């Protein structure tokens, strides 16, 4: 059989291929020749054939049929064969294939070989693809090589030990004696791999972390020698001595100094030296400075050192390299909560990053800008962010508008400024705002009694001839319906009043109704506004009746239903119309842990929190109340079950049994209503004896993550055929590791015995982030509602 072509010739041949098909044909032809050679047990050219096979594997072609040939090469006594064999094993084998176990004995023999380079090959292979079984069998050999005086083998053994610890953490203690003298080594390669090994052990074991804290002075000394040492051509990179080792030592110091005062104190001085003596003109120096900043921020460092670290990040923001600017913004965003004043000094530089062409830098700068807003700078920061909102890409507008709303609500210097800011957002990016923007602004306007005339005039001007921003039109329609009389009277002291007649106001609202740009929800707002004006205007009531009657035959079912019911108000219940359409009272924003009910406000379906208070004694009967709700447009308002306490006669059977006298334990199976991101919510069911139509649901919220979940709020909504009452929770903090639960009771009245459905909303803080999620619960057991 003729000798196979060399690897170099194969590469040259493949590179001459003009098409993918031609290359594939060449590869298939060569693979066939290699298979034939393998079948004939050709030992002479096995090494050459496996090398060619590895090149094909690198090109993406299948090469699994060469796995056993790699094992044969590993078993060979020639170094050139072993080298290709071990390389093939690292590329073609992994722990998912049982074939790799066949070479365990070969690796063990080579770890005890007389040639250091063969030992190095075996260590590299074991550290690359060794399975947990191989690591257990060969850990003793690796530990023996870790104690050798040969620096070439020690550095490879240290990296192999890292892999062994990752695969079999319980073997960690085996390497503990060998680590004692590793940091005394002068060879930088051994030092580097030793620091990597110590870092891995500290991250995986708190006991190891406590044990190695005594090495902090030695690590500080090594780092100081690196900084102060003169030029060394062997380790110099752009004028800095071994930056790779410096970065690794800084990472290990960060782990050792975290939550430890003594260790942090020991490394404060050296961190200050690194921060002030490192050259920043090259990227190598910036990498070291970045690791230094992360270490300073993570340990219990002095306040002056933290300011120095933030100033370094501020200098990064002025760098021309976009990656460095992005890293700086991300790091500042993590530290802004703990060192707010120090980050504030770089506010102008951060705001300038909003004008950057890179979208990732823009996003980080926007998030950091919102984090910097406070009561002192809110006017200036909002001005910059509103300018950014005008010019930014569409994908930023929703997040930016939401951030402006939250910041304005929290830090608004006055109600007028607050209203002006939100109206500016609606005018600029109204189509991108969140769904809750409209009800929130309506609530703000309602509560700002002295601003009603000013607000309705501003909104009236804003929508003249422009209906493109639907949320703006919805708010304007609602305000015109509520305060149309103030608009017509011109009672505005804040700015020059406009002269608008009743007919002009109705023209605007009718234009909204017939505009092609108006959504169905917006038309609902406009029709309800027109109906409200029938009690605020005096000369145009007949025109309003005509408009309402026209939409009684609208093809939009929602609009038609409203119009029909409003017509009924005019014809059958005209005496009730002024009371039903009177001005909305001041809305109180409820922040307690109450149920979420789906309510409609002028056509917009929004979640609203209902207070679970006992109703006053003067409330009208439920049937009359429901009739009124039906008149107002088929609202989905779910009345809350009265919670007035009832007196019970004393029981001769004892007060303990009396506590359970209200419940009938029926053995209804429990369900898991929600299980995501470590948060689990279970429902258990009981039936009330006093009212068989009432189901008592007890929720139990547990947390399987490693950190507590705080500010937990559970809200629920049910269809309008049900009535729901949510009692107060046992706590607002869910302990970590399932060490405790929050319980809360829900009472659901189901008089029609319909299948129970529920929508739940969960909000909580976890790992420093605000979390929110919605879920549908449709798997209630039949016993809970039948």
What's the overall geometry?
A: elongated
- Separation, N- and C-terminal Cα atoms: 84 Å
The count of DSSP E runs of length 2 or more, i.e. the number of strands, is 13
Mean pLDDT metric = 83
Radius of gyration: 37 Å
Explain briefly what this protein structure is.
The chain has 786 residues and is of the alpha+beta class. Helices cover 54% and strands 11% of the residues.
Describe the structure.
With 786 residues, this protein is of the alpha+beta class. Helix content is 54%, strand content 11%. The strands form four sheets. Strands 5, 6, 7, 8, 10 and 11 form a six-stranded antiparallel sheet that branches. A three-stranded antiparallel sheet has the order 9-12-13, with no helix packed on it. The protein has a two-stranded antiparallel sheet with strand order 1-2. Strand 3 (596-601) and strand 4 (604-609) form a beta hairpin. The longest helix has 20 residues, at 20-39. The radius of gyration is 37 Å and the shape is elongated. The chain starts with 6 loop residues before the first helix and ends in a 9-residue tail after the last strand. Residues 591-666 have low confidence and may be disordered.
């Amino acid at each position: 059989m003729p000798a196979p072509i060399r690897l170099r010739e194969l590469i040259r041949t493949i590179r001459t291929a003009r098409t993918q098909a031609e290359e594939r044909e060449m590869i298939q032809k060569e693979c066939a020749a290699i298979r034939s050679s393998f079948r004939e047990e050709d030992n002479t050219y096995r090494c050459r054939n496996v090398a060619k096979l590895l090149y094909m594997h690198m090109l993406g072609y299948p090469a699994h049929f060469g796995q056993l040939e790699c094992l044969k090469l590993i078993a060979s006594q020639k170094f050139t064969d072993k080298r290709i064999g071990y390389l093939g094993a690292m590329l073609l084998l992994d722990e998912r294939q049982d074939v790799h176990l066949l070479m365990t004995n070969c690796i063990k023999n080579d770890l005890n070989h007389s040639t250091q380079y063969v030992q190095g090959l075996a260590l590299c292979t074991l550290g690359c693809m060794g399975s947990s079984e191989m690591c257990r069998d060969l850990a003793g050999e690796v530990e023996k090589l870790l104690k050798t005086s040969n620096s070439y083998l020690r550095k490879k053994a240290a990296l192999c030990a890292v892999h062994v610890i990752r695969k079999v953490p319980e073997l960690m203690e085996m390497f503990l004696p060998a680590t004692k003298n590793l940091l005394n080594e002068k060879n930088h390669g051994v030092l580097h791999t030793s620091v990597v090994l110590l870092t891995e052990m500290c991250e995986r074991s708190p006991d190891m972390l406590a044990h190695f804290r005594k090495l902090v002075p030695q690590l500080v000394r090594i780092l100081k020698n690196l900084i102060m040492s003169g030029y060394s051509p062997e380790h110099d990179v752009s004028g800095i001595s071994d930056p790779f080792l410096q970065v690794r030592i800084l990472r290990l110091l960060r782990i050792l100094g975290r939550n430890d005062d003594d260790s942090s104190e020991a490394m404060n001085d050296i961190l200050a030296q690194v921060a002030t003596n490192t050259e920043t003109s090259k990227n190598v120096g910036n990498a070291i400075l970045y690791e230094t900043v992360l270490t300073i921020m993570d340990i219990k460092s002095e306040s002056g050192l933290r300011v120095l670290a933030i100033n370094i990040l501020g200098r990064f923001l002025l760098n021309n390299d976009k990656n460095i600017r992005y890293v700086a913004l991300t790091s500042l965003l993590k530290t802004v909560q703990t060192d707010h004043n120090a980050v504030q000094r770089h506010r102008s530089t951060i705001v300038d990053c909003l004008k950057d062409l890179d979208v990732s830098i823009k996003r980080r700068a926007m998030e950091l800008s919102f984090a910097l807003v406070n009561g002192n700078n809110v006017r200036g920061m909002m001005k910059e962010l509103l300018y950014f909102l005008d010019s930014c890409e569409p994908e930023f507008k929703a997040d930016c508008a939401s951030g402006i709303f939250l910041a304005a609500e929290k830090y608004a210097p006055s109600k007028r400024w607050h209203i002006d800011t939100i109206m500016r957002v609606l005018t600029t990016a109204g189509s991108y705002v969140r769904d809750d923007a409209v009800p929130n602004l309506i609530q703000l306007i309602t509560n700002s009694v002295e601003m009603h005339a000013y607000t309705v005039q501003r909104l009236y001007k804003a929508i003249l001839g422009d209906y493109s921003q639907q949320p703006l039109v919805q708010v304007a329609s609602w305000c015109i319906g509520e305060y149309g009389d103030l608009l017509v009277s011109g009672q505005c002291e804040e700015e020059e009043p406009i002269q608008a007649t009743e007919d002009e106001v109705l023209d605007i609202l009718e234009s909204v109704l017939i505009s092609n740009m108006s959504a169905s929800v917006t038309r609902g707002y406009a029709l309800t506004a027109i109906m409200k004006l029938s009690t605020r205007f005096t000369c145009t009531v007949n025109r309003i009746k005509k408009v309402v009657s026209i939409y009684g035959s609208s093809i939009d079912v929602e609009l038609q239903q409203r119009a029909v019911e409003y017509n009924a108000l005019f014809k059958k219940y005209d005496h009730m119309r002024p009371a039903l359409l009177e001005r909305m009272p001041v809305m109180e924003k409820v922040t307690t842990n109450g149920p979420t009910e789906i309510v409609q406000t002028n056509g917009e379906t929004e979640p609203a929190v209902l207070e679970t208070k006992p109703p006053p004694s003067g409330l009208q009967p439920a049937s009359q109340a429901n009739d009124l709700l039906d008149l107002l447009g088929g609202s989905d308002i779910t009345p809350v079950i009265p919670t007035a306490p009832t007196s019970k006669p004393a029981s001769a059977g004892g007060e303990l049994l009396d506590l359970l006298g209200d419940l009938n334990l029926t053995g209804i199976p429990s369900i898991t209503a929600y299980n995501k991101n470590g948060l689990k919510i279970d429902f258990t069911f009981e039936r009330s004896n006093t009212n068989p139509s009432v189901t008592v649901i007890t929720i139990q919220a547990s947390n399987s993550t490693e950190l507590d979940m705080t500010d937990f709020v559970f809200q629920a909504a049910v269809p309008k055929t049900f009535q729901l009452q949510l009692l107060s929770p046992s706590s607002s903090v869910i302990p970590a590791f399932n060490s405790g639960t929050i319980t809360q009771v829900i009472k659901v009245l189901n008089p029609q015995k319909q299948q129970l459905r529920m929508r739940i909303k969960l909000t909580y803080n976890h790992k420093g982030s605000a979390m929110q999620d919605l879920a549908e619960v449709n798997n209630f057991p039949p016993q809970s509602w039948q």
